[in-house]
Amino acid sequence: MPNARLKDYLHLHFLVVIAGFTAILGELITIGALELVWYRMAMAGILMFVYIKIARVNLKITIKTFWQFSAAGVIIALHWITFFEAINQANVSIALAMFSSGAFFASFIEPIFFKRRILGYEIVFGLVVILGVILITSSEMGYINGIILGLFSALFSTLFAVINGRFIERHSASVISFYEFVSGVLFLTVFILLTGKSFNAEFFTLSNSDWIYLFILASICTAYAFIGSVEVMRYISPFTVILSYNLEPVYGIAIALMLFPEAEKMSPQFYFGAILVLGTVLFDAVFKNYQRRRRKSK
């Protein structure tokens, strides 16, 4: 039994490393953010459809639910576009450091969706996160466009995480993700056409390395990671899963420093600000778990 539990924890952290590696792939893939996200969602949608057919999952949903999934799919597309463009405008470290500020946005977005009051300690933690972001920004003004895009990415990420948290109460993860990927592709297709681009031979002419990286991104880092993160919650508490995923920027920045030491080397103030943000996010999760256990013991 202990070996089985260890296996589950190792699987969880493998999934977190995969999440951090997504940013590395964004750095390696040479096409623009719009095209990258279109390929990612299209390929992941096809892979998810194959999984659904093999697992014999029922895809039937109501029209109202379809439009709800579609709205979430657009938000996911916007999150990924701003995230990968933040990498293009700055680097992996900046994009991941800004991504970790999502906990700050969650402290204000969650009360709206779940109709609860904003807690005082969440405001305090939010202010500390803002301080960390200010330290990062002031030390890396040359990357201001990437910083702003990274913050928008964190906002969109928090929005779809909270929305999916409501969806998962009534629908399976594979059905949710399939419709979100399909709607994201449709949205991006229209958007790309409106920008004056077309789906001609040039659009589908990619280097061999780009095809390989895109397949890894769509299969392992998207379809598998999505299903795996839901599956692991059968054996590990949701709190532990969420807490572990807060380590995504840590793993991602560490990998980026190893692979791109020159491009990813930042000022000491950046790392202090990033540690402040990440430390606050982790402390927030631990504190909330303590509060939850305290209420249950009464």
Q: How much beta, percentage-wise?
A: under 5%
Question: Which stretches are low in confidence, meaning pLDDT under 50 for 5 or more residues running?
Answer: none
Supply Rg.
Answer: 19 Å
- What structural class do you assign from the helix and strand content? mainly alpha
Average pLDDT for all residues: 83
Number of strands: 0
User: How can the largest sheet be summarized?
Assistant: none
What portion of residues is helical? over 70%
Distance between the termini: 31 Å
| Total helical segments | 13
Taken in chain order, the helices and strands follow as HHHHHHHHHHHHH
Shape: globular
Notes on the protein architecture:
This protein has 298 residues and is an all-alpha fold. The protein has helices at residues 2-28, 33-55, 63-89, 92-99, 102-114, 120-139, 144-167, 173-194, 208-232, 238-245, 248-259, 261-264, 268-297. The mean pLDDT is 83.
What is the gist of this entry?
By secondary structure, the protein is mostly helical. It is 82% helix and 0% strand. The longest helix has 30 residues, at 268-297.
